[in-house]
Amino acid sequence: MQERDVMEYDVLIIGAGPAGLSSAIAIKQLNPEISVCILEKGAQVGAHILSGAVIDPIALNQLIPDWQQRAPQLATAVSQDEFFLLDEDTGIKIPQILLPPQLHNDGCFIVKLGEVCAWLASEAENLGVEIYPGFAAAEVLYDDAGAVMGVAVGDMGINKLGQHKADYALGMAIHAKYTLFCEGARGSLAGDLENKFALRQDADPQHFGLGVKEVWQVKPEQHHLGLVQHAQGWPLDNSTSGGAFIYHLPDHLVAIGYVVHLNYQNPTLSPFEELQRFKTHPKIRGTFAGAKRIAYGARAIAEGGLQSLPKMTFPGGILLGCSAGLLNFPRIKGTHNAMLSGMLAAPAIVEAIASDRQRDELLAFNSAFAQSSIWQELQQVRNIKPAISKLGTLAGTMYAGAELWLSKLGINTPWTLRHSTPDNATLKRLNSVAAIHYPKPDGVLTFNKLDSLMLANVSHDHDQPSHLQLRDTLIPITVNLAQYGSPESHYCPAGVYEIIQHHDAPALQINAQNCLHCKTCDIKDPQQNIHWVPPEGGGGPLYTGM
User: Fold this and answer.
1) For residues 412 and 106, what is the distance between their CA atoms, to the nearest angstrom?
2) Which residue is catalytic, options 308, 335, 389, 426?
């Protein structure tokens, strides 16, 4: 057996997103002598980062107080805020005075989150942090006591049959005193840790949404710098929750996206197609008249809130950011909480290393987190997601508004609503629903998945084992197709899953090279038969301006 090469660091961080980069910077600010390494599976920092994004700058202001002076190009101040309720033909704009103050975007900024991460990475490297893009962490490593001691990087140069190619290289082992997991929503290693340490034992299932996003270059007369628009209602029905965003960035760019909550029931629903339909609404389509679509992508977001938080610490490490699920659901904002969680971890780590400790459980982080603004924020909005899931969009939104207004007045409801049904268990059988038939794309305003993929710059080595693994190869046909009409061929925003005829019988074809790493299949598959594992490092989308 070939031995892995080993590198040793004080701190290892998995994922160069907002949480991981903020933690690295904060650690170095407290003690420049601590060695910090970040592994990033994308080909470059920001390559796999996708978000709306309107951010609350509270964390950035604390981490790098002069960021606006040093990097003014990173952010556009919100200049106007609009919220619409849509039916198929019309839309009602809700006056800002009627919206709970928590939903206002005063003082917030529109950003391209990938560019923010790239800038934070340069700041981290200036402080001495070592960042290695293109290296996917494939396995958690444990010491003899069962504590996390680091990770193994995925092997390179293995063909589809599992055989070593001429360029085969065994993945390196990276050991650390503490390892921080910042993989984003539905992280593969985070899932392994949750199982090993029973981190979800006292939590509701995590709940997710799938966000599908495009960026357009619009005509100058249709552009309003700093405008933020959100919408609920059509094209989704009252039993299916979700919503849209439209953000106006510099250079006549407009980001448009649709988030469908993955507890939906109709197996023929396609979040990608819902975005296409949304763009045709009379209140929306005018913005894109004569415009050009220049970018596309998709990503799942963790939106379960406080009830769905796992235990974040375990011997040797912490789950941070969206790996834990720190999104404020009604605000549709999680970047600031992800960053703050990384910054909260830094003092606990620095103190532990100064005391010559390693691979123990960082209990100081738990105390700090329980007293933090993150906890207070999630506690205040804990009932919003389950209320909408239980009551439907209309009644749930009315309940949410009432509770948010009460909390603003200092009146906190004494109950906590639960949401114990996981997203994969909500689909109805195909024979019990009305199938959704989406209109054919026109190639001007609406498009198909494969044409969209070209704008995501997706690349995987075709001759490698599929990173989309089936636990049982029969289930896609005997269960998914027979009972649900192959929901994976609908919910996947990249056309990865396709029912074909093979020897005069239906078969599932997996086009793994199309994968956007959104993780929806790993979340929504009815019997949790699809298992997403990291492909060879550097594979996946290469998002720019997202």
Assistant:
1) 24
2) 335
Pairing of strands 75-77, 292-302: unpaired
Residue 250 has which token pair? Answer: 């510099």
N residues, the chain: 546
Q: Mention every residue, 6+ apart, whose C-beta is less than 8 A from residue 195.
A: none
3-state SS, residue 295: strand
Tell whether omega for the bond before 77 is within 30 degrees of 0, i.e. cis.
Answer: no
Among 301, 291, 314, smallest CA distance to 366 is for 314
Q: Which residues of the chain have pLDDT under 70?
A: 1
Task: Give the list of residues 6+ apart from residue 14 with CB closer than 8 angstroms, or none.
Answer: 20, 38, 39, 137, 151, 179, 180, 181, 182, 183, 187, 189
Q: Nearest-CA neighbor of 139 among 191, 200, 178, 182?
A: 191
User: Catalytic annotation on 182?
Assistant: no
The continuous run of DSSP H or E covering 155 comes out as none
106 sits in the region (left: phi over 0; alpha: psi -120 to 50; else beta) called: beta
200 is catalytic: no
Q: Which of 299, 331, 359, 382 is catalytic?
A: 299
Structural tokens at position 123:
């700041």
- The active-site residue, picked from 22, 23, 35, 51, is 51
Does the annotation mark 335 as catalytic? yes
322 noted as active-site residue: no
Q: How far is CA 466 from the centre of its chain?
A: 22
pLDDT at 87: 94
**Residue 515 annotated as catalytic:** yes
Q: Write down the catalytic residue from 186, 446, 515, 544.
A: 515
Q: How many Å apart are CA 516 and CA 404, to the nearest integer?
A: 35
- Verify whether residue 459 is a known catalytic residue: no
Cα–Cα distance, 463 to 161 (Å, whole number): 9
Catalytic annotation on 331?
no
Model pLDDT, residue 525: 98
Q: Is the whole model's pTM more than 0.85, yes or no? A: yes
**Which tokens in the block code for residue 41?**
């599976």
What is the C-alpha to C-alpha distance for residues 185 and 171, in angstroms, rounded to an integer? 24
- Residues 7, 9, 12, 18: is their CA dihedral positive or negative? negative
pLDDT at 3: 84
Q: Quick one: which of 297, 294, 296 has its CA closest to 253?
A: 294
